[in-house]
Structure formats: structure tokens, C-alpha cells
Design a protein that fits this description.
It comes from Kitasatospora paracochleata. Pfam families: NUDIX (PF00293). This is 8-oxo-dGTP pyrophosphatase MutT (NUDIX family). This protein has 4 helices and 7 strands; from the N terminus they run αβββαβββααβ. By secondary structure, it is of the alpha/beta class. The protein has one domain: Nucleoside Triphosphate Pyrophosphohydrolase. The strands form 2 sheets. The chain has a 5-stranded mixed sheet with strand order 3-1-5-4-7, with helices on both faces. The relative contact order is 0.24.
Length: 164
């Protein structure tokens, strides 16, 4: 005999399952190796260009859409570099899954058009600066993504908090 609950319908079973927040981001560098990061006024730390996956799109499409919406740059997403999982916490009531894609290199003088009311600033940061400015969850993703670029192996990491 099992202690698993019995469900009367598929809908009841589906309603019992945990939900997961999904987001996708872009790792973009300039020719000097600096990382493009953006700052939202409502968040403590800087972040990657990216956002939550919309209904009907996959994470790669999300990264490409967010790149256009947050910077004005049109570019196809490259390889999946890192997947970060975070457990529910006081910050988020459900787990979160973040996909970080390689968007390659763009010239540092590429015009960046930030969406008014959503993002306050952007900057090209050295890797060390970015690790400091991104905060713990996103820094973990950056470290994993850079390692993945080196050896071609996607990394899966568990973050200490959401960075969502």
C-alpha cells in the first residue's frame, strides 16, 4: 500500500503539482571580453539581458525576444551555456529554472536602446566587475556559462537564491 494521495481526475492531479518559473538570458560580450549587463531600478543587483518565458515560446525564443525588447539588438541565440535551478524560498514560492544562451560578441559601440520604465542602465563590465555586480545567483550562472564556452559542455547549477 502506498501513502500517495489518490486523485479523482487528471485536473486534480495537475493542480497538485509544483509550478516552475522559467526565464532565459543572454550572455553577450564585446570584443574586449566585457559582459553586457543591465540594471532595473526595482532590483538590487545587475542582471543579464533576459526575462520570463512567455506562453507559446521556448527559452531560446525568449532570449532572442528579450534581447530585442531590452536592447534593440536583433541576433539569433547560440548555444545553451547554463541552466540554473533554484528551490522555492522566501523570495519565490515556486522553483525557478533559468536558461542562459550564448549571444556571442557585438561591438561595444553598438547602440543599446533600453525600454523606458523597465531598465535604468546598461554597461559593459569586465568579468570580475560583472561577478560582483550580478549578485550570487547570476554570478554562479556567469561562471558556469564561461566554463561552458571553454569546453562546449552545458552546465547545470543550483543557485543559492533565485536571482529572478
Amino acid at each position: 500500500m502506498t501513502d500517495a494521495p489518490e486523485f479523482k481526475s487528471r485536473e486534480e492531479w495537475l493542480a497538485s503539482l509544483h509550478r516552475v518559473y522559467a526565464a532565459a538570458g543572454c550572455l553577450i560580450n564585446d570584443p574586449a571580453g566585457r559582459v553586457l549587463i543591465v540594471k532595473a531600478g526595482y532590483r538590487e543587483h545587475w542582471q543579464f539581458v533576459g526575462g520570463t518565458v512567455d506562453l507559446g515560446e521556448n527559452p531560446r525564443q525568449c532570449a532572442e525576444r528579450e534581447l530585442l525588447e531590452e536592447t534593440g539588438i536583433v541576433k539569433a541565440a547560440g548555444e545553451l551555456l547554463a541552466v540554473a535551478w533554484t528551490h522555492p524560498s522566501g523570495e519565490l514560492d515556486h522553483p525557478a529554472c533559468h536558461f542562459l544562451f550564448d549571444l556571442g560578441t557585438v561591438p561595444a559601440d553598438t547602440p543599446i536602446t533600453l525600454p523606458a520604465g523597465e531598465l535604468d542602465a546598461h554597461r559593459w563590465a569586465t568579468v570580475d566587475e560583472a561577478l560582483d555586480l550580478l549578485g550570487p545567483a547570476r554570478s554562479l550562472r556567469l561562471t558556469a556559462a564561461l566554463a561552458a564556452r571553454e569546453d562546449g559542455r552545458t552546465r547545470i547549477v543550483t543557485a543559492p537564491n533565485s536571482g529572478f
